[in-house]
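Observation: inputs received (chain + 6-O-phosphono-beta-D-fructofuranose).
Thought: call the complex predictor directly.
Action: predict_structure
Action Input:
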Amino acid sequence: MRLSLRFIIPLFLALGAIAYAVVPLVDKLTLQWFERDLDSRASLIANTVQEPLRDAIRAGTRSRLEGFFTRLTQDERLFAVGFCPTGGGEAVATPTLPTEITCATLEQYSGDAGHVLKSADGPLLVSVRPVVLAGAPAGTLVLVHDLSFVARRSAETRKYLFYFFVGLGATVALITVVIAQLSWRGWVQGLSALLRGEGLVRPDKPDAPELRPIARDLRALISDLQAEHGSRDDEQLAWTPDTLRAILHGELRGQEVIVVSNREPYIHVREGENIAVWRPASGLVTALEPIMRACSGTWIAHGGGSADREVVDRHDRVGVPPEHPLYQLRRVWLTPKEEAGYYYGFANEGLWPLCHIAHVRPTFRSADWEQYVAVNHAFAGAVVDEATSPDPIVLVHDYHFALVPRMIQEALPAATIIAFWHIPWPNPEAFGICPWREELLDGMLGSTILGFHTQFHCNNFVDTVDRLLEARVDREMFTVSYRGKLTAVKRYPISIEWPPSAELVGKPVEQCREDVRRRHDLPPDQAIGVGVDRLDYTKGIEERLRAVERLLETHPEWAGRFTFIQIAAPTRSKIEEYQAYEGRVRAMVARINDRFASARRPPIELKIAHHQPDEVYEYYRAAEVCMVTSLHDGMNLVAKEFISSRTDERGVLILSRFTGAARELPEALIVNPYDTDECAAALHLALSMPAGEQRARIRLMRGLIQDFNVYRWAGRMLIDAAAMRRRGRLLERATAPEARRRPVVRTGAGHRR
Ligand code: F6P
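Observation:
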């Protein structure tokens, strides 16, 4: 309505202005036309009356002439008639002749056209015509026409013009408002339908073909604007599960998400009559699980639990989390031979030591490689099985599946594949020792985006590709173009859920302290240090234990007052190197405890067992210090978990400089795990650190994890994937047959655009 008024008022104002300009013009023209008509009429009358006038003059009877003139003025228009004889004889006129007109003043009215006289009787037109008698001038005839009817007519014309303009205005306004309302409603409906994803419709023509190009452009524009908006807001957004869902539905139009990893998020284990559910000790699972809860979709993983087969449906799927399913876990079964070759062999005896600088030699066997290829095929096949659209978003995780991105890309060319490498990437020389280096790189470059935790690992990867493949590497954009496909290589530091779930931090810190000390038979004032790792040689557990020993040497006052609890989840225990490692760790703990046997408590407690997340968090919250001393680590989420667990803003983190986390958490006590003295000094510093300093350091680290939580990690990858998808579509359009037919524009330099 307001819109209509906004249109109607100016319309009426415009019409008023037109009328204002037009009416005087019409008046003037009408007057001119009438004057001209009356003057011609005067000529006609003058010609017609010549004969009787001559007779009357010849007869010389004045009364006859007056009677003749009076008869003439019976005409409605002719107001007066007069005659002035040549030579100054007596003039004859009707009594109506205005006094201003005399024979003496007649000169001023002569001429071809009539003259307007504004007399007391109203406007008059005075026309003067000669009268000729026997070829000689006999006098002048004066004919006076009444012009007052012109004013009457003008007034009437103005009235009708006014009505005309009002009518015109009303009609135009009515038609315009009706059309505007109809089309506005149509467009509004169309646009809402478009935004609802139903396409642009016109109510009268639901599939109006003329609207299709507009709909396409509008849709592209909206999604580009949304994308621009989303990308620009990366810094400002509060990253929560809702933010992630909004990105998925906005940027990626609710596309299905399929995750592929070796380790499954929930392991069903038979315990006598019961089936227990275990949460594995895996940074990957810690990070990805909240993402999948937020996004739904399907997670494809190796079903390795003793009761895994018992709980799946006929498609090998089970809804998880078990207590309240939010997404599907699709299990892939492996034979012992496949698991031995692919997982224990190629992945963990080959690639794992190849990528970590932990001074363990990688072992590469062609039989393991064959299994690795076969299992990668099996997982790629599972992705294709699970995909319900030709262009799903597939997140492929870790070194177990280097070949999967290319396999998926070949089967589903429109899929968006994000591969994330959770462990470090070595320099080109180190990677070059792998006999299947080109095959691995080729497989990884099937992805749309390839992510690492740090820029250093991105650089190493790009250097490796540059050294080993015939690929085009763009170091400005950090992309690799290989076999006609573009892969963006990017840094996405992984993180954890924020805020931590109440299930993990719900128990008060004081309670955690008491319970842990009671469980370990420790006095209430005992200082506690914790280490939480898989029992893996890359984690620097031996180095950590050596640091505890050195602390007791350099600061004997801590003997008996400090206990270090090492939680070590058994891992890859079929591999000899791991068995040897466990043996070395056990022996070292025994030796150190033996050495300090006289203290009131043994300095080290080793707990080689699987612990559920809530148990681990209880230890974090009970401790004075947490030690992360990895020899080499992509990120290390234990460091971030410890910080997130400390809602009381107490506790000190000692962190190896060889972890990705050290780049993000400089407020931790950063150490070189190979430097035993430095680590021992850090332990002493941590145990003696005033509460204020602990709070100041931990606050900064909590702030960082809050800002860069796992939702942001995944969200940034999805935003980038959406941008790559849009770019891909644009390129597709540009190279479509229609676009190829467009004329090629040549620039001055001869390049084609
Ligand atoms: O942290 C690196 C990582 O490979 C994870 O990606 C993986 O889940 C974790 O180590 C545990 O390893 P595994 O699954 O072999 O026990």
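Thought: report the result.
Final Answer: The CA atoms of residues 216 and 565 lie 62 Å apart. The chain has three domains: 2-152, 257-491, 505-707.
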